[in-house]
Amino acid sequence: MRRARPGAPPRGTAERALTSVEAGADFDEGQDTETAEARAEERAVVASKLWHITLSVSGAEAPLKEVRRALEQLAHDHPFLLTSRYANDHAEIRYWEEARDLHDAAAVALRLWGEHRQTAKLPPWEIVGLEVIDRETYHQRIAEGYGPPPAAPVGVHPY
């Protein structure tokens, strides 16, 4: 067992461990008021939001039973999946994603099919469409009657 004071370097080394120190509570004091407000707004923007994702995939025909089973497995693996519609050569997956911004939500959505291809035994289809809209836009579209139909019934369904 080594006896030393906490934070002391091991014997025979002259290096010291570096640690981080947060700025004090009064860090923004003395700063320009507009700068402090801008920083506060940036911190608020970093909070995540809900994004409605519609991912469309298509490719060579596959047996409908296998497509359904694969999409059901995907729904099990990805519990936020709302609904899937499928045919033997294409499918549409809709779900909610929590992300900081549209770019992050889209990046996650574009990885979904490829990352679950092996585990869910998804068909080797390609992503052919992606729509990412924020929660407010989704609800506005539904209220105005021109958005995607509500994701009900929830689950995996044929076209």
Task: Describe what is shown at a glance.
The protein is of the alpha+beta class. It has helices at residues 33-45, 64-77, 102-116, 135-144; strands at 49-58, 81-86, 90-99, 126-134, 155-158.
Write a structural description:
- By secondary structure, the chain is α+β, with helices and mostly antiparallel strands.
- It contains 4 helices and 5 strands; from the N terminus they run αβαββαβαβ.
- The chain has helices at residues 33-45, 64-77, 102-116, 135-144, and strands at 49-58, 81-86, 90-99, 126-134, 155-158.
- A 5-stranded mixed sheet has the order 4-1-3-2-5.
- The longest helix is centred in the C-terminal third of the chain and has 15 residues, at 102-116.
- It is globular, with a radius of gyration of 24 Å.
Proportion of strand residues: 15-25%
Which stretches of 5+ consecutive residues score pLDDT under 50? 16-20
Tally of helical runs: 4
Shape: globular
Order of the strands making up the biggest sheet: 4-1-3-2-5
Instruction: Estimate the mean pLDDT confidence.
Output: 80
Report the major sheet. 5 strands, mixed
Secondary structure tally: strands = 5
Helix content: 25-40%
> What sequence of helices (H) and strands (E) makes up the elements?
HEHEEHEHE
Structural class of the secondary elements?
A: alpha+beta
* C-alpha Rg (nearest Å): 24 Å
- What distance separates the N and C termini? 67 Å
